[in-house]
Design goal:
Elements lengths: L31 E6 L6 H8 L1 H8 L2 E6 L4 H9 L5 E5 H10 L3 E8 L5 E5 L15 E4 L5 H13 L7 E4 L5 H7 L4 E5 H9 L4 E5 L9 E6 H6 L1 H20 L2 H9 L4 H7 L6 E3 L3 H16 L18
Parallel strand pairs: 1-2, 6-7, 6-8
Antiparallel strand pairs: 3-10, 4-10, 4-11, 5-8, 5-9
InterPro entries: SsuA/THI5
Organism: Kineosporia mesophila
Protein name: NrtA/SsuA/CpmA family ABC transporter substrate-binding protein
Length: about 325
Amino acid sequence: MRYKLPALVVASLLALSACGSSSSGAAGAGSTEFRVAYLPTANYLTTVKESGYLEEEGKKVGTTVKWIGPLDPVTAYDTVTAGEADVSSTGTGYFVNLAGTGDDWMAFALEKYSGKSQGIVANEQSGVTDLKGLYGKKVGIDSPGGTGDYLLNLAFKEAGLDVGKVEKVTLDTSTFATAFASGQVDAIASYDQNLAAAMATEGSKVLITGADMNSYNWSIHIVSREWAEAHPKELKAMYDGLVREAARAKADPSVITDTYKEFGATDELVQQIATFDVPTIEPMDSTVVADLEKLGQQYVDFGFLKSVPDIKTAVVDES
């Protein structure tokens, strides 16, 4: 999942499972309904609500769109498992886990970015200036096996360092900024708004970003297998809507920053977020599948997974 707001708690690894129904009587006879459980974040499945591109593309194929949210991860989980939504967003790490534990979901679009919006930042109190300086220090992460844990493991592996010498501290996403600024932790391994807040803290030191590593941690949009298999033409229309939304943001990046403002981000944080790159929407083609298999292998190497799942069976290639 990409950007997150501490007050609204958007996790990098959204715990989604089960699938929603394929249509709704509210959509009208002979039409389908695409029920979107969207998040309080500036990924394209959220910002496209403003542009109306999903509705425009859906109209061409007889599909209406129902917006459910914005939902925090727990509520999104409850909504999806109750069969009241068909699609949502998560991180590629969670998707890899998902692909290995069931066949209820399929990925239909990758939201890809360079990795500048992910990284490890040390606070001034710690005196840390490089990764090795984190030995014996406390580093805040979102959850064991989550995005922060992944970034920390990857950074240390590529630097030839022992991540076991770091004390990982699991933080609630809403407390990252306070824990970092107060010195409760010496550094954080995080992403998006929590990373931006750390970067904007006076005296902080960026130790590394995802752009400096072989990171395959991006956002991904997933749909219930039931809906995808029953409505391939309609799903392609929804994918096309996301492609149009990515083009809109590329032409005018305020599409992203304005969404942050709407969700309560301060001007200082918005300025920092504006330095992050604008994502693209990519199809789940053979190149993306290969990248996710590499991510799966990294998860195995870090002890997050026992084996790399069969990614090919869990994607819909809309290229």
